[in-house]
Structure formats: C-alpha cells, structure tokens
C-alpha cells in the first residue's frame, strides 16, 4: 500500500513532463509539415543534384 504514495506522484510528474514535451513540439513546429519528409526518401539524389546544378547555373546567368 505504501508504494501507491510513491507511484502516484511519479506518474503525475511523468504526465506533466509528457504534456510539456508535446506543447514544446507543437510550438517549435515539429508538426507543421508531415508529408514532405515521407516523400523525400523516394526522390533520387542524382536527380536532386541535377536540379541544384540547373538552379545554380540559372542564378549565375541572372546575375551576369
């Protein structure tokens, strides 16, 4: 029976910490974009490099 006097406060503290972490994650933007990271693994790295090169070349042409 004495263990209840220890386990209830510990569980309430853990609940408070969990709620605090949830609100911290929401405020810091962890849930803003849930779809893009899932699609990024499907993209080919080589294709991404070609796009970056094209955009860099385009930027350099616009600057000149």
UniProtKB/TrEMBL annotation:
Keywords: Membrane, Transmembrane, Transmembrane helix. Pfam families: FixS (PF03597). InterPro entries: Cyt_oxidase_maturation_cbb3 (IPR004714). The chain crosses the membrane at residues 6-26. NCBIfam families: ccoS. This is Cbb3-type cytochrome oxidase maturation protein. It comes from Natronocella acetinitrilica. The lineage of its organism: Bacteria, Pseudomonadati, Pseudomonadota, Gammaproteobacteria, Chromatiales.
């Amino acid at each position: 029976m004495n263990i209840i006097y220890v386990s209830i406060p510990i569980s309430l503290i853990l609940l408070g910490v969990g709620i605090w972490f949830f609100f911290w994650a929401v405020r810091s933007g962890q849930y803003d974009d849930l779809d893009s990271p899932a699609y990024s693994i499907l993209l080919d790295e080589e294709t991404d490099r070609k796009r970056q090169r094209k955009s860099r070349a385009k930027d350099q042409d616009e600057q000149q």
